[in-house]
Amino acid sequence: MNSSFSILTLSCWFALTLPGHSSAQACALPAPSDHETHLLWGGETRQVFIADVGGDVHIHTAEDGGRIRRSTDGGATWAFAQTPIDCSQSILDVWFDAEGKGYACGRGGKILISTDEGATWQHIDPANPVHYDLNGEPATLWRVRFLDENVGFVAGLHVFEVTTNGGQGDFATWADVKLYSDATLTTQLDLDDLELYCLDVIGVPGAFTGIAGAEWEDGSTDRGLVFHTDATVTASSIGRKWWIALDDSADMSSPGSMKEPWDIDYERGSTDLQGSRAYVVGGPGGNNMSRFYRTDDSGASWTLEGNIPVTMYGLAAMPGGYAMQCGYSGNVWSRDPVTATWTQHLVPATGAVNDILTAPCAGMHGLTEEDYVLVGAFGTQRRTSDYGTTFDYLNHTYDVTHGEVPWRTADIYFLPSDPSTGFLCGQVQLIAKTVDGGCSWDKSIGGIDDPGYNAAPLGDIEFSNTTNGIAVGHVPPYDPAKIAALWRTVDGGVNWTQGTIQGALTTDDFLVTAVSHAAGGAWWAVGVKNGGPPLVLYTRTNGSLWFQMANPPSSTVDLVDVEFISSSEGLAIGNDAGVGHAYRASFNGTAVTWTEITLTGVGALRALELEGTTLSGADGYIVGDGGVVQHWNGSSFDPVDTSTTYDGQPLTLSVDLLSVALSPDSGEVLIGAQYDNVEANATEEGLLLRYDGTAWECLRSNAGYDIRTIQLLGGGTGRVLGGIHPTESATFDHGKVSDAAILYYEAAE
Prior knowledge:
The chain is mainly beta.
C-alpha cells in the first residue's frame, strides 16, 4: 500500500500561539516529551471544562487516545497535559472542584487526578492504576465527581462506585452504590444490567443530592433512567443508595426517546438540595429523535421539556434557566430562560456540508449564562460568548477558511520528496489535498456534501512521484447518477479523472482494496470481484486503462494488499475463511503468474509492506489478527516475537494489527493496532509497536481509533492515521464516534 521512496527533510516541530496554515510546523501542537505522535488534524473531544481561575479563563478538554488539552488564556494558546504512560485510551470526562483539583476518567479503567491546575495528571491510586468493572475487566468510566477531597463517585458501564477516602493511598477503597427501582428501596437492580453515562452531585459529604443517567438493559427492553439520591434522607444511607426518579419508557405517547441518557447537569453553582434545577438529555443515537427533561426539585421528579430530531449528547446548565445542549450532526440548541423553549443554532464551518458544522458534538460546559465551550468529533472545539450567536474556533488547526469537515478517512499519503504535500481518501469517493503538512485540507472530489458521488469509499491512495497518483476503492455496479471509479491524477492532484477497467460490465461490482506502483506508468491493484473471486488489475498508463489479470491459485481468497517492488515482481496477501494467504507474483510484461508462499500460525492478514529493489533482497512484513507479525526473509515469511516491556510490565500485543510501515533509510518498523470495544483488551489498546533495528517496544499512538495507516518518511518522522473504517458503525457508549485523526510522528532521540 503506502511505500516510501526518499528521505524526509523536515525541521523541528514548533507550536505557535496563533492559528495558521502556512506549514506543518505552524499547526502541530506537540504532546509532552514522552509522546512521539503529535495531533495534526481531526480527533475527538468528548468533554470540556471551563473556569475562571484568578481572572484567567482555563479550559481543559478530554480527548481520544488519552489526551488532555489545556489552555490558561481562554483558548488563545494550548498545550497537552502530561498524563501517565499507560493512559493510552480515550478520556471521557474532565472536571475540577472549587479548589482547583482536577479529576478525569475514561476507557481502560483510568481515574486521574491533577493538583497543579491540569498541567500534569497522575493515577488517583498509583498502586492500583486500573479500575475494574463487575466482570473483572478494565472499566469504561464515563463520569467522576467529588464532593470534597474524600467523598467521590465514579460511574460507567456496569460501574457505579463511591469512595470516602479519596480513592487514594494504601487503604483506598471504592464501594458499589446500591441502585433501586423506586424510592421505597425494596427492589435492588443489578449493576450488570446498567450502563451509566452521566452523573452530577451538589452539596457536601453528609448533605448532598445527586443525579445519574443510565441505560437499563431490562431483558429485551432498553430503558433510559435517571437515578436520584438525597443524603439528608436517612434511607439513602448517606447517599450510598440511589433510586429511579425518571423512567423514560413510561412515556409511550411523546415522540422520540431517551433510551440512552448521555448527559445530566445541575445549574452551575447550585446549592439547594431540594430546589435546584437540572436537565438530562439523550436518545437512541445518531439521527434518531431524542428527548430532554427538566427537574426543579434537584432530581426528585422530572418533566419532559421537549424533543430534538437527532440524539443529543452534551449539556451545560447555568443559573437562571440558561442552558445549551449539543449532539449529532452538529446540532446545537439554547434555552430561552423566560419561555423555556429551545432554539437551534447553525454553526458555520467552511468546507462542511452547506458550510455548516455537521460533525457529532459530544460535550459542552458553561462559564457564564452566555459563555460556553462546545466540543466534539473531527477536532471540533468552539467557544461562544453570545449564547450561540457566534462560535469562535479554539482548535488551532481550523479557522474561517478551513472548518471542521466530517471526513471518515481510510488512507493518507504524503510525498516523500515534499512532505508538506499530502493526500487523503475515504467515505463517498473522497479525495482531499494538503499543502501544509496535514493541518488543513481542501477537497478535490467526492465527500458527503456532494450527492453526485456514490457513497462507496476509497480505501487506498498512493503516488509514484510528485505528479502521478492513484486512488482505489469500491466501484459498485454502474449508476448514471452516482459516480464511483478508480481515480487517477497526472498533475499532482489538481485534477482527478476516472480510469477504465477493460471488459467490465455495468453490473460488475469491484471492491479494490489496495494499489501499488511498480515502475514507470505501471501499477497493480487487488481486491474482490462481484463478491466472489479474487481480483487483480494492472495498468501501464498510470491508471487510464486497467486490465483484469490472472488471479492467484484460489477462487475463494479475498485479496487485501499488494506490493510490487519492481516492474517484474511483487507480493500480495489475502484471506480465505479467516486464514491468511500470501502469494509471489512474477510478471513478464504480458502475463503474471502467482506462487503461494507457505504461512504458518496466521489468522486473517491485514497489511503488507516491502522496502527494497528486489524481492530476494527486500525487507518486509505482514501483520494480522491476533498480534501476528511475520518478517520477509527474501523467499518466505518468518514469525516474529514482538514481546516487550511497557510501563515496567511484560507485554505482548495479542489484538489485531492493522497497519505496518518501514522506514526507507533505517531499520525502523512501526505497526498499528486495533482499538475495539472489548474492555478485556484495554491494556493493549492505543499503542504502536516499534522495532528500532535491535529490539521491539511499545509507544502511545495518541489516537483512540484503529490505526489504519502509517507512513514512515525517513529521518525518524512520518504520519499516522487513526479512524473508524468508512463503512463501519462506531459505538458511542464505548467512547467512539465515526471520526478520524491524523498525527505527526517523530521518534524520540
